[in-house]
Amino acid sequence: MTKIRAKICGVKTPQDIAVCAEADAAYIGFNFFAKSPRSVDIPTATQLAVDAPVGLAKVALVVNFDNEALDAITASVPLDMLQLHGAETPERVAEVKARYGLPVMKVLGISSAEDVAKIDLYAQVADQILVDAKAPKDAVLPGGNGVTFDWSLLRAKKYWQCPWMLAGGLNPDNVAEAVRATGVRQVDVASGVESAPGVKDPELIRAFVAAANSV
Ligand SMILES: O=C(O)c1ccccc1N[C@@H]1O[C@H](COP(=O)(O)O)[C@@H](O)[C@H]1O
């Protein structure tokens, strides 16, 4: 069985990144959404990305950012992928892809079969799809809320034209079941590997990657 590729999102320190590399995560995520307890500024992300071990893919998480904001990030931070976590349209996904020449992962929040059906359209323009739980109505953050969704909704999914990743309330205790239930080969986590909001826990990171690969 090929390994499950794990993305650890919201890394903020060199230590976080060292643990991700040692645990054999595939991706690290820099969160540029200012209201998040996981956010980093551009100088911090730049230094972290420059120093990150080769082989860890560096992803920038942005939410409805305009070109000016994306220009500033991409001009400074060496990146492997952009993660669009807002209400970006398929046209905007295509525009970002063309403008920055970086692979784009579009996030789609799921709480119904209709939400799953919408993925098709985005899978034609994005390089990857991140299937996440829809944020609760009163949530301040559009993601990173530690909320799962009904994974059985994905049974109705058709073949998508690009690779996909699963997120939403994953943690070391439920990630193996999520992999079994959905057949996903890539998983993403933010709050489920933290000891407090925005504080990554090395043991939880190691346990998460190991549990994802225990199936
Ligand atoms: O993590 C955040 O703070 C965040 C803020 C704004 C948009 C997205 C965010 N996180 C992303 O959401 C998924 C799921 O988070 P969780 O594991 O349920 O806490 C996370 O992996 C990030 O990609």
TrEMBL record:
Matches recorded under InterPro entries: Aldolase_TIM (IPR013785), PRAI_dom (IPR001240), RibuloseP-bd_barrel (IPR011060), TrpF_fam (IPR044643)
EC class of the enzyme, as a word: isomerase
Keywords: Amino-acid biosynthesis, Aromatic amino acid biosynthesis, Isomerase, Tryptophan biosynthesis
Gene Ontology terms, MF aspect: phosphoribosylanthranilate isomerase activity
Taxonomic superkingdom: Bacteria
Family indicated by similarity: Belongs to the TrpF family.
Protein name: N-(5'-phosphoribosyl)anthranilate isomerase
Name of the gene encoding the protein in the UniProt record: trpF
